[in-house]
């Protein structure tokens, strides 16, 4: 078997709260190959952001890793956590990986930049934290001696920032401006520039365009896509909006209440969804495509609302809202069923049907 | 009446069957002066907007952040006082009214806010929150008020009602909270409701339910709606007619399907094209517009959109286009569309 760029196996992350444990991520497995885009879709509180942040190990103190593996180029990143299962934010090995190998475009561009520093400086800071990566980027043309002088490093970082501004399409005279002097779209572009700074093989985009207007969103998604293609980066795109993920991802993972519901090639998931939640999600979004009668007939919300993750429902977590649920669904957690190439479903009904049984 | 208070002249429009007629509505916000005696600067949040909302109609106001759509909503229910223009509510101009005069009309117009987590009082139970407007307007005996409250909650889809009455907001999900807000708007039997992004903060899987609820209420009670949203897909599902706004102006207005299927204004064309459509096979092509929306302080001369328009010519900088009927019922504010050039 070939090695994936990133492989997450049976990841479980619980948060300790006063009421007990929040089972935010409970047995999630997926992989990302070089240069491809995986979209993780789900509603608020389904664990998609926790999953992504676990990869770079940026989780709060009350997060406990209860099991699983995060293999990046074959190396398990979870070997660096503390013995009690909490995350060690500052482990030297993780600090090397973070940003150089895996970077993040944070959710909410409006708040992700520090208001009291110039934007350019914030990006330089990220670059300077990884002198080895800076040295590796040949076009910076640092000689062996220069690598040790901080002034040369500063200048090289500066040149890299200028280059990045070119790539993401912000005028260079903006580098020495403060975040409040940027528009929303520009801040988002600056964050993309920051994520690109060290040319990482994997980029995690957490709702990169959610706070933006549709026109800006369309442009920025297009730019992310182009940059990703040009530099052959892999990307994990996290979003609650199945429409945006549809347009940008090669494969998709649908999450519900801390677990995976369905994963597969984006096209398959749209053409042939097998999990009732995926179907429900696709039927609950209005669209401007097609004629209005079809839309009026199709649009339907999923009854109920997502469950709390402290004491989540037993068995399949979707069963209280599922129109097809039977007694087995409340008793047993569904196993993964492979229904096609790359297409995996966690659902008793889908399992029965794929085995040729009546449901 | 206190001396010195100028009582606005009561203006009445002939009955035309519309619930609302907005004429030349403007709202300028004065900015903080940087120097004491410098000339005041204004942000033109709403700059000369005219439209009508008929009986039982859902009128969508669509546009990007800062286009003035929410300000219009707040003006219409008179949370703000307009700088200029008229708001005829069932024929009476309420633009200049205040105090008791205004309160008579207030009951008839209600608003549903965007954020169900911020718009409920965390220290009031559901029943207290919904009965409050009835007390405020002294609508009936306590028994009648209780009955109305129960009915409103049930109509808002909170069933069984008994289970919800004594709950506090933190015991409700986002969708349930928004339904409580809807019940509170509903309980005083309004003639129209301004719904400001009613579903944008809700989880995707429950949005459709709230949209269907609002449309069902229209059927049942026959009230009109102004739907304010940035999401054209939502406007398409809910509204009968819609207006697209850009920098405080309406640039296009027509029946909803007309705007979506045949957008005329260059801005609307770009906007419609940018809407994600949940189609993995869609080709991404560049949008027919340039740059970013200018700040409301640096309004371009002439047509407000010309700085981003790919078709802009000299006339666009010289003269401001007015909103004119281009085809039956389809209004557009663009020199070039008007002349049939694009």
Structure description:
The complex is a heterodimer of chains A (about 350) and B (about 350). Chain A is built from 14 helices and 12 strands. Chain A is α/β, with parallel strands linked by helices and about 350 residues long. Chain A has a domain of about 90 residues. Chain A has an 8-stranded mixed β-sheet, with helices on both faces. In chain A, strands 2-1-4-5 form a 4-stranded antiparallel β-sheet. In chain A, helix 7 packs parallel to helix 8. The longest helix of chain A has 19 residues. The model of chain A has no long low-confidence stretch (mean pLDDT about 90). Chain B has an 8-stranded mixed β-sheet, sandwiched between helices. Chain B has a 4-stranded antiparallel β-sheet with strand order 2-1-4-5, covered by helices on one side. In chain B, a hairpin with a 2-residue loop joins strand 4 and strand 5. In chain B, helix 3 crosses helix 4, helix 4 packs across helix 6 and helix 6 packs parallel to helix 7. The longest helix of chain B has 18 residues. Chain B is globular, with a radius of gyration of 21 Å. At the A-B interface, helix 7, helix 8, helix 9, helix 10 and helix 11 of A face helix 6, helix 7, helix 8 and helix 10 of B.
Short description:
The complex is a heterodimer of chains A (359) and B (342). By secondary structure, chain A is α/β, with parallel strands linked by helices. Chain A has a domain at 114-199.
